Amino acid sequence: MNSIAVKDLQKTYAGALVPSLSGLSCAFAEGKIAGLLGPNGAGKTTTISILCGLVEPTGGSVEILGMAQTPANREAIKRVIGVVPQRIALYPQLTAFENLRYFGNLYGFSGRPLKDKIMHHLEAFGLEKAAHKETGKFSGGMKRRANIIASILHEPRLLVLDEPTAGVDVQSRSMILQFLRDYNAKGNSVIYTSHLLEEAEQICDEVAIIDEGKLVTQGTPSGLIGRHGHCRNLEDVFLHYTGHAVRD
Ligand SMILES: Nc1ncnc2c1ncn2[C@@H]1O[C@H](COP(=O)(O)OP(=O)(O)OP(=O)(O)O)[C@@H](O)[C@H]1O
Questions:
Q1: CA-CA distance, 127 to 164, in Å (whole number)?
Q2: Taking the model in full, what pTM does it have?
């Protein structure tokens, strides 16, 4: 089974002159860590927003863990997918614990089991001492780690993260990457976006490079590097396919 499969995905935002996605097709096998890579404006966030049902595509089809993304499957998909957005989705005036209790309640958890679950994750992410601190007072790395916990309370089989390691220090990044490896080792699928190609090369079983709303290539990092004699690493592969011109 695939973790996700999108076919001929199209998206033109209301009022936009050019499409953000123009026929994107790609699929990742279940149980892998997959990277969705591309330059600024390639359509990564749009794709992720469509995968998690926040943005309606203008065309094409989406399957999540074998389920077509239809209104009838919305609830079933919500139970198996966890989404960590690029922007921090926490209430700054609430403590970490209060934020996580709120998100846990949304998934139907409450009482002692929810409290234990929250404390377990806070500890795993090195945030137990900050449990009762307002998240507005957290550092960038602490906010990112708490943001991830909010998305895994229901133990989704598929975790989708939009630039989870952007702008965090080395320690938080290392903790987040180890978490992704451990979460994947339990049999869960992970799809994530990043501009850090060295990181993606290390952590991803498979990557898809997209540009201008289309797939340009897909494969394992070593397979893609080996395909081109002049490419020493994933960054060389990325530049080979997307060029050196800067993007708006
Ligand atoms: N809400 C929106 N309304 C109009 N255009 C949008 C909207 N969101 C994104 N776009 C446009 O769609 C295109 C793809 O954007 P998207 O954010 O999906 O790319 P991205 O690959 O995630 O880029 P980045 O690496 O900069 O985050 C861009 O041209 C962007 O300006």
A1: 17
A2: 0.95
